[in-house]
Amino acid sequence: MLKSIETGDPGPVAVVNEDKYIQHNPQTHEGSEGLAVLFQRLSKTSPRVNIVRAFEDGDFVFAHTEYDFSRRNVGFEVFRFDNGRAVEHWDNIQARLGPNQSGRSMVDGLTDVVDRELTERNRALVRSFVEMVLIDGQLDQLTNYIDKDAYAEHNPRLADDVSTLRRALQASGKSFRHIDYHRIHRVLAEGNFVLCVSEGNFKDAHCAFYDLFRISDGKLVEHWDTTEMIAPRSEWKNDNGKF
After folding, report:
1. Where are the alpha helices (DSSP H) in 9-118?
2. CB–CB of 63/1 below 8 Å?
3. What is the pLDDT of residue 174?
4. pLDDT in tens, 111-144
5. Per-residue confidence band for 217, with pLDDT thresholds at 50, 70 and 90
6. Shortest CA distance to 27 belongs to which of 42, 15, 12, 46?
7. Cα separations in angstroms, 236 against 73, 82, 192, 214, 239
8. Secondary structure of residue 46 in the 3-state scheme
9. What 3-state class would DSSP assign to 183?
């Protein structure tokens, strides 16, 4: 379905159950008709779609993707399925930036899923990290979660050195944090990969944070993310909300 963005072919969109479909991209109309129209419009920009990583968690499929439309973007796509058809969709897309200070792009790195028997343990680890460090700001706990000797950072503004993450998360001025996580909405996982969907502020703008982590030996060893500003409600094309 995602690859059909390149051609505008409405056929693959039939995987969507339009009677049940709930669209959470605020800029897309409800239902599969909205997707078909969107894909046809995007196809006129000679787009390229590359699905870098794809995972399954029960009724959910989530993918790490890169898009080349009129500009290059990186995103995460999440679909919920019911009886083999897509019934709900979320995404988070930002402009592709980088490489970062460590020479990494927003999408390179390992892709293979392993340790499926550790899925729930890894899910709990990421939830704990986001709650304790990113939301509560307990930065002294960073190295309890992150393997500082093996950590690979793909955020275009950061680097592998955990100290850059610490500085980015530290409060400035009167306890103002440029990166300010408020709450977790969903944690999806398969094996050694975990995607956390959160809400908060970036430079005082209301944003959605999608953070994908790779875990090895009980610690976070690789991280990719996208940050997308949430449009004002007056600009939404559906009423389902970003989350």
Report:
1. 31-43
2. no
3. 47
4. 999 999 999 999 999 999 999 999 999 999 999 9
5. very high
6. 42
7. 21, 26, 35, 33, 7
8. coil
9. strand
Residue 68: phi, psi to the nearest 5?
Answer: -125, 95
In terms of phi and psi (left: phi > 0; alpha: psi -120 to 50; beta: otherwise), the region of 188 is: beta
Residues 6+ apart with CB under 8 A from 216: 147, 150, 192
At residue 185's C-alpha, the angle toward residues 183 and 186, to 5°, is 135
Q: How do strand 205-216 and strand 193-202 relate by DSSP bridges? A: antiparallel
**CA nearest neighbour of 134 among 65, 27, 220:** 220
Rounded Cα distance, 152 and 172, in Å: 26
Decide if pLDDT at 171 tops 80: no
Please calculate the CA angle 63-64-68 and round it to the nearest 5 degrees.
120
Count the helices and strands in the chain (H runs, E runs): 4, 10
Residues across the chain = 243
Domains of the chain in start order, with CATH, are 2-99 (3.10.450.50), 116-229 (3.10.450.50)
Measure the CA–CA gap between 168 and 204, rounded to whole angstroms. 14
- For 122, phi then psi, to 5°, come to -70, -35
- Least Cα distance to 214 among 198, 225, 199 occurs for 225
